[in-house]
Every structure is written in structure tokens, then in C-alpha cells.
Amino acid sequence: MDAQKFVVGIDAGTTGCRAVIFDLSGNEIAAGYRENPLSYPQAGWVECSPQAIIDNCYDSVRDALGRSGIDAHEIASVCFTMMRSSFVMRDAKGGFVRDIIMWQDLRNAEMLPWMDQQLAAHGMTADDLYDRTGFPLGQVWPSSKIYWVKKHHPDQYDRTAAIHSIHALVMEAFGAEGYVDDTDDAGWWQIVDADTFEYDHELAKVFGVDAEKYSRNVPSGTNIGKVTRAVSDRTGLAEGTPLIVGSGDHQSAAVGLGNIAEGMASIVLGTAGVVVAQSSKPVRDPNRRAHVIGSALHKWEIEGHASAAASSFKWVRSTFGQLEMSTQTLTGIDCYDLLTKQAERSPAGAQGLVFVPWLAGAACPHYNADARGAFVGLTLGHSKNDIVRAAMEGVCYEMRAMLEALGKVDLPPFELYRVSGGAARSPMWNQMAADIYGRPVETVRVPEATALGAAMIGAVGVGLFADLNEAVESMVHVTGRWEPIDKNVRLYDDMYQIFDGTYHALSGEVYPAISKVQGF
């Protein structure tokens, strides 16, 4: 084991699969990435081939190893993390019953009233569901998507012998025996007790599903198998390399950011946006908005989830940034850097322009599938600079709404935020975040912390570190800190009230009417 100085984190994400090799000081040695072929069969529907995700994970590992220059036998472990709230359905022979319905798919909105009715028929309410599972009704979770399949394609549900997450999909493909998921993420099924992470068979009966179809769960850090000969040939990994159960993408990112204790929150601006806080005890949000899930520390996390986040800024790039995208093609200068420079020419508050980023519905704290994005306050005096800045600020306002929801939970107050994702590379965005959140913001050396967190869990799983605290000391390094600027904090407090008021002004009649016209 002394000769094995490297660990691999594999992140089976929404838009693509990434494999990263790290040394035990947290230095990135090499990485590989392959984009997932997402499909959009109808407006609001998002799917992906499960085999494509497996192949992309294989190829990203091979790419990373090829670039690393290290001997595969020097790799001590391979650990996994994944997009959450998406699911795989398998038949009795292990074949795929259908393509994956991805977490941002909106077709399941019709099932939320049905879930309410099922609860009522059994003397329960949505509040009772939250109190038991730690999850409110919402269109992001896979539960209602599975119920949609059962309603519209009962033959597919009947043929299904196993329902599991992307985690089990990839682990089994690399050599794990059977379909095993991590205990940390069992709660997404919404038929799991949030205190014990055991299946709640009464709730399964309420919703008419078979708990026996769902995967077996084991704690993160568990050694679940070894790289097989076939996988070795396909990826370049050494046969017999230990496979370690990881955690969900945002639990892993929390580890990679060093967010492993109460009093800190981590904020990830990826395809979705998520805020994460640790808890040493089972907790609930008194307003039943933020969800409770397991942590890689074998304790609890409380989270807020945004459906779009950085995806909404990507839409702004694609819609308003064609010139910057062309410039990137010609010069290699990142188009997001060019857009950020334009946003810097607009003052804090974007001259009163507010962007609400609900391009895929609103998740925490509103959970409104009908919510839609908007620019509010546009005048003839606004420029592209203001539009870009307002979009950046709007994403941060949405994160603040979730932080405020988490702040109502019985936890110590947050004194510090650690941020990751593409936005964390931008000093301007980090300062904006500190000003809008009203607390210091820190970044770490590895801004895409998800794969790092998985690699750290893998390192602990094979005994390279005693625990995650020791792994954080060795592998997580703070590289930047931004203090809130008082005058901006005051301005953004006012702008945030406008942002919050916009939701309430539109949610009564406007959002449902727009959703009806759009047909989903």
C-alpha cells in the first residue's frame, strides 16, 4: 500500500462524466471528461442512455490515465460520485428497461397532486411525508418520476426487477457485485426514513410501489469490489484495484470543500445549484422546505436545491453571448471570462434589473414546477452588461433564498461559506456572492470539488487516512477569501427583497397561466 500514492474520483454527472486522479496532497494529476448525450423527447423531458454513461466513465478514466504518466498499479482506490435523483430501471436479466429519466425532467409534475391524494387516502399529508422522509413534495426527486412510469408505462414497471441510482449503475459496471447504492442518498426515493435511512414499507404501500425493487444501500467508504479484468482492459486500471462506495455529488463536493462540520455551508454552482450544511443529529426544516439526507460522515446533511443555477447562466451565454462564443473559437479566450468582464462594467444591482433564474421550475424553497424565468425591471437604459450582471446576481439570490431556509433549521449559525463549481473561478462572482450572502466566501485549490471529495472518501476507504478529518487536512487547501463589502450588502439586501417579491407576485396567476400555455 505504501507504493500506492494516487486515488481516483469518478463523477458521473448530468452533462458529462469526469475521472480525476489525485495524489494524497490533493493535487490533480490528470483528468478525463466525456459529454453525456442527453436527449429531449418532448418539451420539459430530459433523458439519457445508461450505457452511454457507463461508456463515458470508462473512457474518461482511460483518458485520465493516459495523460497522467503514472503506473496504474500506483492507484490505491477508485471511488464514485454521481448526479442524484436520476434512476435506472433493470429487468431480471440486468437489461435496461428504458432510458434514464433525468433529475431535471418535468413530466412528473402531474404526479404531485396524485401523491397528495394518496397520502390523504391513508390519513396523511405532505407535511407528514416531509416529517418522515425529510423531503417535501417536489418535481426534482425520482419518486414521482417512477410513479409517472408506473402510470403511463405499467409494462415497463412490471418488467423492472431493480431500481437504482447512477451510483449503482457505474459501480456495477466497474466490478461491484449487484446493484448497491450509498446509504447517504437513499432518501431520494421518498420511501425512506430520514433518521435511520431504512426503507419505510408503509410509505411504499401508500404510493403503490415495491420496496423490494429498490437497491440495497451501504455506507459510503465501503469496499464494494475490485476492478475486473474486462474493465482493466477497457480503462487501463489495474485489475483488482479496490472499488469504494462514494456519496452523491453534493455530499462529495462538501467533503472536497472541507465542509465536514457544523457552522459552515458549502455552495455548489453546477448544472443545478445546491447549498449544503452538516448536522450531527437528525433535523428537519420547520418550514418543510430544505431536504434532509445522509452525509459522507455517516451523519446528516440539510440541503437546498435549485433546478437550474449555472444552467440558467449558460442559457444567458447562448442567448446573449454569441459574439463571446465566436471569440472563444477564434482566440481560445473563455467566453465566460469575456461575459464576466462585461458584467464588471455594470454596477452592483445591475441598475435595478432583476433576473429570476427558474428556467427549469423553482425548487427550494418554493417547489413550484410552474415557476419560470424572467428579467424584471428592464428599461431602454439597460445594456447587455446589465443583463449579464443581473443574471449572475439572480443565481446568487436564489442561493441566498436556500441559505435562509437552512438558517431556520436547528443548527449553529453559518459563519462561512465555501463555494465551488465554474462560478468559483471568477473573483468577481465570489465577491458578489459574499456581498449577497453577507458572509465571507472561500474557495479551495480544486474548484470542481466533487471528484476530489469522492477520491478522499476512497482514500479513507482503503486506510490511507484514518477518517475524513485527516483527509481534509491533507487534501483540501483554501486559496481565496472574499469579505462582504458593507455598502454592497445593504444594496443587495434591498434587491433581494425585490427578487423575493417577484416570485410572490407571479406565483398566484401568472406562472400557472404560462405553464398551461407552454403545455408542461
Overview of this protein structure:
The chain is an alpha/beta fold. It contains 18 helices and 21 strands. The longest helix is centred in the C-terminal third of the chain and has 23 residues, at 384-406.
Characterize the overall form.
globular
Corresponding CATH architecture of the domain at 6-257 and 454-462: 2-Layer Sandwich
CATH H level of the domain at 6-257 and 454-462: which superfamily?
ATPase, nucleotide binding domain
Beta fraction = 15-25%
> Helix proportion of residues, in percent?
25-40%
Report low-confidence residues grouped into runs of 5 or more: none
Protein structure class: alpha/beta
Instruction: Provide the gyration radius in Å.
Output: 22 Å
Number of strands: 21
Spatial arrangement of strands, main beta sheet: 15-16-14-13-19-20-21
The total count of helices amounts to 18
In CATH terms, what is the fold-level topology of the domain at 6-257 and 454-462?
Nucleotidyltransferase, domain 5
Name of the top-level CATH class of the domain at 6-257 and 454-462: Alpha Beta
Question: Main sheet?
Answer: 7 strands, mixed
What's the average pLDDT?
A: 95
Give the N-terminus to C-terminus distance in angstroms: 54 Å
Oligomer: single chain
Question: What order do the helices and strands come in, and which of them pair?
Answer:
Elements: E1 6-12, E2 16-23, E3 28-35, E4 47-48, H1 50-68, E5 75-82, E6 88-90, E7 100-101, H2 111-121, H3 126-133, H4 142-152, H5 154-159, E8 162-164, H6 166-174, E9 180-182, H7 201-206, E10 216-218, E11 223-226, H8 229-235, E12 242-248, H9 249-256, E13 264-269, E14 273-279, E15 291-294, E16 300-306, H10 310-320, H11 322-331, H12 335-343, E17 354-356, E18 374-376, H13 384-406, E19 416-421, H14 427-437, E20 441-444, H15 449-461, H16 468-475, E21 478-482, H17 486-507, H18 510-518
Parallel strand pairs: 1-5, 5-12, 9-10, 13-19, 19-20
Antiparallel strand pairs: 1-2, 2-3, 4-7, 6-8, 11-12, 13-14, 14-16, 15-16, 17-18, 20-21
Helix pairs in contact: 1-6, 9-15, 10-11, 10-13, 11-12, 12-13, 13-14, 14-17, 15-16
